[in-house]
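Dear colleagues,

For the upcoming journal club I promised to circulate an example of a predicted protein-ligand complex. I picked one with adenosine-5'-diphosphate because it came up in last month's discussion. The inputs are reproduced below in full, followed by the predicted structure.
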Amino acid sequence: MIVECPDLDAMDALGQRIAAQLEAGDVVALSGDLGAGKSTLARSILQALGYRSEVPSPTFTILEVYDSAEMRLPCVHADFYRLNDPAEVRELGLEDYRDGAALIAEWPEKAGGFAHLPECLRISLEIVGQGRRAIVEQGSDWLGRAL
Ligand SMILES: Nc1ncnc2c1ncn2[C@@H]1O[C@H](COP(=O)(O)OP(=O)(O)O)[C@@H](O)[C@H]1O
Ligand SMILES: [Mg+2]
């Protein structure tokens, strides 16, 4: 499915649709070049889950965990851009943080397995003029969920 997101409001709307379907254990893999809008979409999803404070890009921390009382579901936001080796994912303790949470992963290809997870929601973002285009592929966990 292709979703045109010509502005930030459209990106927010897509984030809301994803958040409404998100459950513990889900993975949302966000691909696209630097500046394509991955962190923006992650922020929209987190806010739609109820998170009310600032959402920094996890470029340097690699993992940010969101688990505040107002959220419908705990969520881990990861940016694997800085990983040199997919094996580092284990050292980060990602599996512990993911327990009972959803995972939103930027640069999943840098984390090995996440790039090709057959069950995840894969979103590839492209810059189109001033806006963005989202190419959405629903893996096996997402089949039958209306986005
Ligand atoms: N749908 C959109 N329309 C217009 N600008 C957007 C859209 N999505 C993101 N942006 C802008 O693109 C810039 C880079 O976004 P960001 O989410 O940081 O990219 P990435 O995480 O992929 O590197 C930000 O200034 C953001 O406001
Ligand atoms: Mg980013």
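Two points we might discuss: The chain has one domain: 2-138. The pocket of magnesium ion (ligand 2) is lined by residues 38-39, 57, 79, 106 (CB under 6 Å).

See you all on Thursday,
B. R.
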